[in-house]
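Data card: per-record layout.
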Amino acid sequence: MKNRWILAAVAVLILTGVGVAHAMMPEPNPDKLWRYITHSSAYDTWGFWGDHEGLQPGGAPHGPYHKVYVNKRGLYSMNAPVQYGTLIVKENYGDAMGKDLKAVTVMYKVKGYNPEAGDWYWVKYSPKGVAEKYGRPQGCINCHASLVDNDYVMVHDFGGEDE
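The structure for this 163-residue chain is written out next.
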C-alpha cells in the first residue's frame, strides 16, 4: 500500500512538472518568442542534432551557411512528429566563418496552432530580433512540406533513430 502512495505521489509530481514546464513555453507571438529564446532559455546553449552539428553548408532561402540549435524537447524526440514545445532555431550566415549573421529563423511546434502544416509556427527575425515574417508563411510551409513525413524538419532525419 505504501508503494502505491509513493508511486501516485511521483506520478503527480511528474505530471505537475510537465504542466509547469509546458506553461512556461511562450505563446506563438514573435516578440514573446524572441525574448524566450534569447533571455529565458538562451538558444545558443541548446544542443545540435548529431547528424547536423555546428556550422553547416546551407542554401536558399536561408543563406550559404547555418547553425541549427534544438531545445531538449526536440533533441529527445526520437521519431517524427516531434514533441510539442520543440523549438528549432537556425542562425543563417552569409559566410563560411559564421561571422556574417543574416537572419535567425525559428520553427516552434505548438499544439493546435496550425494542424494543416504540422502545428508549426514559423518566424524569420533580423539579426537584431525584429520579426520580418511570422505565423504561417506560405513560403516556409510550401518548402518544408516536401518533408511532411519527417515532420517538416529538413536538417535532421528521424528515419533511423530507433532502429
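Known properties of this structure: The first strand starts at residue 56 and ends at 57. The chain has one domain: 27-150.

See the next section for split statistics.
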